[in-house]
Each structure stands twice: as C-alpha cells, then as structure tokens.
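Entry
Fold in token form

___
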Amino acid sequence: MDYLLEGETTQRLSFRKLLKTDFGEWLPFHQDKRSSQFWEGLPENPEEACTQQFDRTFERYEKGLGGMNALVLKSSGKLVGLCGLLVQEVDQRRELEIGYSILPGYWKQGYASEAALKCKNFAFARGLADSLISIIQVDNIPSQKVAKQLGMQLDTTTVYRDNPVHIFRVYPQ
C-alpha cells in the first residue's frame, strides 16, 4: 500500500517526499528547544537529532511503512513542515498514525491542521485503515488541539518509546 501523499495539495501546501537536501531547511526544527520539549530520548545535538529523523523517514519509505511528507508552501516553495501517515506498532497493535511537525517559524498558522486533515481524508478515501491515530505526549497541548480539530478523541493513555502518551483516534464519518 502506498501511504505517501506525494503530489497531493491543500489550499496552501504541496506534499512531496522528504529529500536529503531538505536537511538544512529542517534543522531549525531541532535547534529550537521548544520542538522537542515534550519528547524524552532525543539526541541533544540538533544535527544528530535531525540526522536520526531523516534516517527514520527514508527507512520508512524503503520499507513501505508510510512516512512524513515534506510540506511546501505553494506560494513560495519554502519547506514549512512534515506530515504524513505512519504505520506504527502501539501496545502490540498495528496502527496508522497521522504525524505532523511544523517549523517553529510557521507555528500557529494552521499548517498542521490543514496538512493533517488532508492525510485523514486521503487515508479514509482509500480505505487505508478502519481508524487513524495520533500519538501525542501527554503534556503537548498544541498537538492535542490539532488532533481535536481533526475530530479525534482521546482513546487511551499508554507509554510509547519510553514517553507517556495519549492516543487520539478518529473513525471515518
């Protein structure tokens, strides 16, 4: 199954695969301490954290496990974030997650909600899953607000990669 939204668009955004050449544009995400303040276990060094994230993304692409798409502003071609459908294993259950991260300079402009809604509609229109989740650290209120805007509801609280998380879930309408 193809979980990538390559070539898809929203009103303001284009989706494409992440490229190795995006590293410099994405690095500020990891240089801003607020981006990782809710997640334990990430490398302290921004370059190392960014390298780890890119490696994971490319590995997902290779293994057909979905992955984060680069979100590019249609108006300027600038990278503003990453969003995508990710095959995850949570509490011994295979799930399809909507993941999203936005560069700090573009926070609070609705890009995460816009991109995540596109992922939700894409997944349900293609019958990729019976439900979709978002794995959100329990103190990450901004990401929880995005999940709620998608119609997601708190399903359970668990531990994922040594972090206490809420699992938000949404079903097709």
